[in-house]
Amino acid sequence: MKHSSTKFWIRFTVLSILFLMVWFFYWETRNHGLESIRRLFGVLPVAEETKTDIDTVMSLADFVLFTQGKEKVFLILFQNNLELRPGGGFIGSFGILKVKDGSVTDFAIHDTGNFDGRIPSTVLPPYPMKETLHIDSWKFRDSNYSPDFSLNAKQAETFYQMGQGQEQFDGVVAITTNVLSSFLRVTGPVTLEGFPGTYGADNAILDLEYQVEQGYLKQDIAFGERKSVMNLLGFEILHRVKDASFSKKYELFKVVLDDLHRKDIQLSFKDEILQEQVVSSGFDGAVDKTWKNDYLFLVDANLNSFKSDYYMKRSYDYTIDLSSPVPKAVLKVTYKNTTPVKDWFAKDYQTFLRVYVPKGSYLEKVTGAAKDPVFGGEFNKKYFGVLVQVPILTEKTVVFEYTLSENFKSEWYDLKIQKQAGLNDVPVTVTTIMKDGQKEEKHSILNRDMMLSDMK
Prior knowledge:
This protein is of the alpha+beta class. It has helices spanning 4-30, 33-43, 48-65, 112-115, 129-133, 149-162, 178-187, 204-218, 228-242, 246-261, 272-280; strands at 72-80, 90-100, 103-111, 171-176, 190-191, 198-199, 265-269, 294-299, 312-321, 328-337, 349-358, 362-367, 374-378, 381-390, 394-403, 415-418, 426-433, 439-446, 450-451. The strands form four sheets. The chain has a six-stranded mixed beta sheet, with no helix packed on it. It is globular, with a radius of gyration of 23 Å.
């Protein structure tokens, strides 16, 4: 079933991935040659990471623009992170994008709610979906239940095939609603004829949700036309991008790179060489399976709380005591539900929180959870999982007290914290108690994967 809202998001994906990462960068450098590259380097000093990113983007450009007459097919997942899931957000729709030698030959849009009706109810849902979502089987819309995008991409393809999908995909791309806000920060706010208000970076997502669910009723807009505002907004942003100056386009290009590092855009390709480059730039949304020192990865799954993540505030406070024979850790995860009133949009918050820690860690105590913890292991890590409930206008702190493995020994201590896709701007405090008892406290905002040695 096709909807104007889903068409908007697929257009926006094409704009983000093809226009900015392929059209702009490829043609500006290839058509204008070294002079364009000099201009590019003149805009902003280029760090090593950016050089790696640029190399990856050029490879993406070649992959899409030069298909040697063959059609390449991509699965596009729209993840609404107002309803946070481990892989980025609830998958309300997906698109199938086809390209040949740089041209979009076709794209079809599907509602996952309708498509899931074609999938046999044979796969048991992961815990605690059955209890919280009241479902008996696992399907496409909930396929991104892993924090690792490569697994989510494979699971989405599996469900697609179970629903009699006929396409064989060359890659999978996931995008969150944060990309819309990113673009509006560069293009500036947008006003649309026939619709009230101004759509800016800080309010566009919420205002769009209201307009298509409630606002149209007060404006005598037909039900079938209520989502036309999303098409109009998309076309206006596209128009501004096309008419933008070189420096403004480069600023947008950097925004896309930032969204990739934040995991608001995640990529997976069947071409092994291209995927290696995607991995080297960190655009693959992967869980680090090789890190040998201390480790944290907090993963939330909004289960039956509507779009409440728009109002949720989080902070992480981690203390590690290295002065003990076995290192002791205390992790405090604070949730603040600022939802003003229960309605069609938001309500009391419920999340299944998984905390990934080094293999061999032992949980001694947890407080603040709604149920007893569950345990598991994957990605060469251990996780503690708890259900957390936060009523509106309240604050809840969940505290994990655990020890690292008795075999945890290192000549130097470092901590890697990985960031969940779709969840940004989380304040983090890390307190390290050294072997001699001295304390060191560092602070940061979690917007991408980071290490303690890089924090201030």
